[in-house]
Here is the input.
Amino acid sequence: MNKTNTTSALTRVGDLVQLVSPTNKKFFIRLTPGMQFHTHRGVVSHDDLIGVPWGSEVYSHTGSRYLLLRPTLHDLLIETKRNTQIMYPKDIGYILLKMGIGEGQTVIEAGTGSGALTSAFAWYIGKEGKVISYDLRADIQNLARKNLQNLGLEDRVTLKVKDIGLGFDENDADALFLDLPNPFDYVEQVFNALKPGGNFGAILPTTNQVQKLLSVLGRHRFGFLEVCEILIRYYRPFADKLRPTDRMVAHTGYLVFARTMLADAFSAAGNSALPSDDDQHAFTVDE
Here is the structure.
């Protein structure tokens, strides 16, 4: 199949590109005229990568080859520099969908960490949206700021050093996520920061914490509660010997979701997000 080299199919100045070696070693660089990329496999001039079709083979001055690819968000998050445990892409993907993150939204998070989830939020809210990320420690946020700058997303994010126990500065957010060990202490502050029907999410490592959070959510007009964990199993991609890999990415945390409600009638009791038997039948296709 022939592929036409349209302008959009070519790399441009300022693009973030991924170079992949034959041993699957990955490097990320932002194309800047006159700059060079140095590795033990040789030097690659940025000028030689500008205006090149995505998916091309490119070479260092020693003849070592790389594949030139447009990085996905998954690629970038996996390589995020960290000083704390970052959230896994498997969890981030579900969070983005479940909380309806999209163009032009205002999203708040607390517990900035290394900025992996911050980056994902910023990626999806677009140029017209905004992310506000709270943390108690400025030194923690410094790494997140650098990671955001590397991705070109820093203009979409406001980093705030503040104790959220004193309340959030915003009161009309579309979504709010807590990556903290004690989210149950801030449910009232969350409710006040979200617009009616806004999406709330949290991640917790133990069932004890989840139970405590559910109990508090039920007393603060949150409805449509959901608790889940995301497991992912990879397979060896060989047609003649397809089988699971020896390890899988299993439990990394419990995800808790809820939505703000104006009616007091909504509570955790009798308002589970899990479908009833009748609901499940609605998705059954008759033979």
Q: What stands out?
A: The chain has two domains: 7-71, 74-281.
